[in-house]
Specification:
Length: 216
């Protein structure tokens, strides 16, 4: 299965992607996670990306597309993949088309998750992530067993620095201006699945599984 999952920041893409990639046994390719790893490893690209991420802006396309092109050269993508947070503008969508064409394959589904801005802001402000493994929690809707500690590896749960209110507003603005048009791009290709992201996590998962099961 080759999937792209789209939607505004904080709508629940990463949460959904974690389940789908386990179910289909495919790699979860989150460009945001890759940039955060590159920064943690103190790479040059990671430092550049961090500057853009901290301002809530998109990392330049030449850097992002090169990272994706390289990731698609790994052998694990032969069984499929799920892109989370890529493509984020029309240029990236076109670049992905080119990469896939060269590999002789195409996307099976583009999932577009939606929720009103108020709910998105509540989700982002309550999000906590494991500083070791990046697992995602929420102070109300997805609590860890022990407050402030990751269930998976005991890592400390922290707030992402781009989840602070000023940056979140910038991220939402950029989403509306640059990423939302990508939905139209995929609509024209007829490969889009609409998911109501306002429901609880288990309901969202059920909607996605049903829609994927109905694909020809
Ligand atoms: P990235 O890491 O991709 O962030 P994002 O797209 O802004 O998405 P988020 O990770 O904020 O949210 P999500 O939708 O995954 O929600 P989650 O599942 O965590 O990108 C970060 C930055 O990197 C960008 O701003 C940009 O600078 C850069 N970047 C990345 N990709 C790029 C690209 N392609 N080009 C250029 N720059 C790029 O859920 C949020 C919270 O809600 C969690 O606490 C969760 O537990 C909770 N939750 C989830 N679902 C539900 C539910 N159904 N009900 C209740 N709570 C829920």
């Amino acid at each position: 299965m080759r999937i792209v999952i789209m939607g505004p920041p904080g709508v629940g893409k990463g949460t959904e992607a974690a389940t789908l990639t386990k179910t289909f046994n495919i790699p979860h390719i989150s460009t945001g996670d890759i940039f955060r790893e590159l920064y943690k490893d103190r790479t040059h690209v990671g430092k550049i990306a961090k500057e853009y991420i901290s301002r809530g802006e998109l990392v330049p396309d030449d850097i992002t597309n090169e990272i994706v092109r390289h990731r698609l050269s790994h052998p694990d993508v032969k069984k499929g993949f799920l892109f989370d947070g890529y493509p984020r503008n029309i240029e990236q969508a076109k670049a992905l088309d080119e990469f896939l064409e060269k590999k002789g394959c195409k996307l099976d589904a583009v999932i577009n998750m939606t929720a009103p801005e108020k709910q998105i802001i509540e989700r982002i402000s309550g999000r906590r992530v494991c500083e070791k493994c990046g697992a995602v929690y929420h102070v109300i809707s997805k609590k860890p067993k022990i407050d402030g500690i990751c269930d998976l590896d005991g890592g400390k749960l922290i707030q992402r620095n781009d989840d602070l209110p000023k940056t979140v507003h910038r991220r939402l603005k950029i989403y509306n201006n640059q990423t939302a048009p990508v939905i139209g791009y995929y609509e024209e290709k007829g490969a889009i699945i609409y998911i109501d992201g306002t429901k609880p996590i288990a309901d969202v998962q059920a909607q996605v599984m049903k829609a994927l099961g109905e694909l020809k």
